[in-house]
Amino acid sequence: MLHLPPPVHGSSIVGKLVSESEIINNSFHGRYINLILSRKVNESGKTNPQKIVRFIIIWFHLLGKLLHRKPDLCYYALTTTGAGLYKDVLLITLLRIFRIKIIYHIHNKGIIKVRKKKLNHLLYRFVFKNTYVILLSRHLYYDIKPYVPEDHVYYCPNGIKDYQPSAALVTLPETRPFNILFFSNLIEEKGVFVLVKACSILKDKGYSFQCDFVGGEADVSETQFNAFVQEEGLASQVKYLGKRYGRLKEMSFEQADVFVLPSRYDCFPLVILEAMQHSLPVISAYEGGMPDMVDEGSTGFLLSRYDDVEALAEKLELLMFNPELSKQMGINGRIKYEKNFTLPIFEQRLLSILQNVIK
To answer: What is the mean pLDDT of residues 172-196?
Structure first.
């Protein structure tokens, strides 16, 4: 029971990789149910009649599969907060009735903040009782610690398909502005406005740069984004390019000098792994599993606070004036990706976890 695109986000991409994995499908007789009710990123967390109908269909789909053949294990991509949690509780109740062993794969965080509400606390006790959990990083265990003993927790960092450079790589001019890339949905807590403000500091210092924002609209619309850019006087340096896929997506990384995602929203963003694939230095925040991805001073930088605009501008300025440092950080990132975050490594880790839990 997992998330499959659309919309495209970390959990749905991983769900697609799992459902299409030859090593997983050759090892188990797996049946898949798509848990996603939203069709667009900006629908997440909102209720409408179409989503209610989709949920009813999913509930009866699950009931049919349980009646037809009781599984040895249910792998479940759990949403830990908001409306998604309440939806999942209704499905998990059905699994409980049939006494199915459950392992949750958690791609988000926030339990520690909302567990103070009595209803949420009771739901978490019900959801996590006698279950196993896969986390993306040891840095995320604190979020479920009140409900899950550590001997029921497994750690499985995400992995992605390898990027093979195209024969027709982008030819960049010798003299060009320093290119900063933000590649994610326009969500305020991903640091959208933080990066724009940092660019404003660079502009005031007279630096030549280009900052590209690529991704879908979410809680920040294109209109809101462009209005903020205009207010900061950055219309010629900061551009929103919308969604990009395939070759256009690869070109965004190939043209960039640094990748920036100052997010407190993410747990283990796949897009950072994509930047490392493309040998880019990464600037992110000390949040979630980011410390497992970015080695401070070696593959990039981690902001102690995601909204520290001055620190972000300082790190960007450092890389602008130290191209050799920037290049070496990118090389280090690529090496780390190859050793830790390829798709085969992820698949083997996940396979071992599932086999161990079933035994």
So the answer is: 91
Give the residue among 300, 304, 292, 295 at the shortest CA–CA distance from 325.
Answer: 300
DSSP string, 341-353: -BHHHHHHHHHHH
Q: CA-based diameter of the chain, in Å?
A: 67
- Per-residue DSSP letters for 286-350? S-TTHHHH--BTTTEEEESSTT-HHHHHHHHHHHHT-HHHHHHHHHHHHHHHHHH-BHHHHHHHH
Identity of the amino acid at 170: V
Asked if 185 and 216 count as a contact pair (C-beta separation under 8 A), the reply is yes
Q: How far apart are CA 307 and CA 189, in angstroms?
A: 9
Q: What is the pLDDT of residues 42-87, one digit of tens each?
A: 677 677 899 999 999 999 999 999 999 999 999 999 999 999 999 9
One-letter amino acid for residue 29 of the chain = H
Domains of the chain: 10-159+342-358 (3.40.50), 178-340 (3.40.50.2000)
Residue 217 has which token pair? 């609209």
Report d(CA 223, CA 225) in Å as an integer: 5
Give ∠ CA 282-294-23 in degrees, rounded to 5: 105
**Residues recorded for the chain:** 359
Q: Strand pairing partners for 243?
A: none
Secondary structure (3-state) at 66: helix
pLDDT tens-digit map of 247-287: 999 999 999 999 999 999 899 999 999 999 999 999 999 99
pLDDT confidence band for 163 (50 / 70 / 90): confident
